[in-house]
């Protein structure tokens, strides 16, 4: 959620700009230069976009490849993959995994609960059987 700073200008919430840069990369559909990303993230300086792209590369979320005199950037994974990795990270950092998962499941809508059950059943059916 955006806030206003002491000058009254819009300030992005933590991580929001990284999300906007990733969204621009996903929308591009292929490797793009930082200038193309900047065009998709209005009100952001070119140097800020470069900084965010560098951070995303360091986190392993974006790749950078030399092309001509500059670089092009591409996301490593799609949106669902990035969100899933974030969920795993939060689960790893959450302490008691059972308690975290129990709380998560208890707060699912009925529709999401049924979807999760179906996904777990499908996953179980596709797992190879262990030694007998």
From TrEMBL:
InterPro entries: BlaI_family, WH-like_DNA-bd_sf, WH_DNA-bd_sf. The keyword Transcription regulation applies. One of its GO terms (molecular function) is DNA binding. Keywords: DNA-binding, Transcription, Transcription regulation. GO terms for biological process: negative regulation of DNA-templated transcription. The keyword Transferase does not apply. It holds the Pfam family Penicillinase_R. Belongs to the BlaI transcriptional regulatory family. This is Transcriptional repressor, CopY family.
């Amino acid at each position: 959620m955006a806030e206003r700073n002491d000058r009254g200008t819009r300030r992005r919430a933590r991580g929001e700009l990284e999300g906007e840069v990733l969204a621009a990369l996903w929308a591009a559909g292929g490797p793009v230069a930082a200038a193309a990303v900047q065009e998709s993230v209005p009100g952001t300086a070119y140097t800020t976009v470069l900084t965010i792209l560098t951070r995303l590369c360091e986190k392993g979320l974006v790749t950078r490849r030399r092309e001509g005199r500059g670089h092009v950037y591409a996301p490593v994974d799609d949106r669902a993959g990035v969100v899933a990795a974030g969920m795993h990270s939060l689960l790893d950092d959450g302490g008691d995994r059972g308690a975290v998962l129990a709380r998560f499941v208890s707060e699912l809508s009925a529709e999401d609960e049924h979807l999760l059950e179906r996904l777990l059943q499908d996953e179980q059916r596709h797992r190879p059987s262990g030694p007998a």
